[in-house]
Design a protein that fits this description.
The structure holds 2 protein chains of 2 kinds. By secondary structure, chain A is mainly beta. Chain A is built from no helices and 11 strands. In chain A, the strands form 2 sheets. In chain A, strands 2, 4, 5, 9, 10 and 11 form a 6-stranded mixed sheet that branches. In chain A, a hairpin with a 6-residue loop joins strand 4 and strand 5. In chain A, about 30% of the residues are buried. In chain B, about 0% of the residues lie in helices and about 60% in strands. In chain B, strands 2, 4, 5, 6, 9, 10 and 11 form a 7-stranded mixed sheet that branches. Chain B has a 4-stranded antiparallel sheet with strand order 1-3-8-7, with no helix packed on it. The N and C termini of chain B lie far apart (about 40 Å). The chains are: A mainly beta, B mainly beta. Chains A and B meet through strand 4, strand 5, strand 9 and strand 10 of A and strand 5, strand 9 and strand 10 of B.
Amino acid sequence: QKEVEQDPGPLSVPEGAIVSLNCTYSNSAFQYFMWYRQYSRKGPELLMYTYSSGNKEDGRFTAQVDKSSKYISLFIRDSQPSDSATYLCAMSGNSGGYQKVTFGTGTKLQVIP
Amino acid sequence: SQTIHQWPATLVQPVGSPLSLECTVEGTSNPNLYWYRQAAGRGLQLLFYSVGIGQISSEVPQNLSASRPQDRQFILSSKKLLLSDSGFYLCAFQREGETQYFGPGTRLLVL
């Protein structure tokens, strides 16, 4: 079993839709939870970063962490064609003195105008 | 603010040739530095990480090596490239207690 599971998609939605992206994980030692957005042929860009269970909102983006279920989500409201990208979840915990980050394989999102 | 640079952006190399990819970070000191490879549909694979000058840890055995000659410089090398070394190489930095920030990446094609 992989430490982090993420549906690769692709996920195709109409412009204006609410998008829900999800990851599950198995390592209860993970402390930090991140979402990255990666456009084609570019490096991943950090979108959201949270430490605890609960919700964190930033504009149209909401990150949700449920540590009891080992489940994290990213919601995108009023999705735009510019949101079309691959979204990577990531989690980290202390490993031998540094924060080792484990990534999901990414979900490809396409927002249709 | 912190920035991270990688070069070259794209590289096409023949099998058996050497490789040197460079990563530099600005605006921070003593960061942890990372090299990842991203293959299509396979996510990010951690290759090397470094917590200080001259300190390199390898995550997987492979045809590549890394060096950190200066605090904010991280180099990925190979003496002889294999076809399987093709991929998208990403450098990242991390400050203590924070998450990782990625560079723009280098696309390597070995022919």
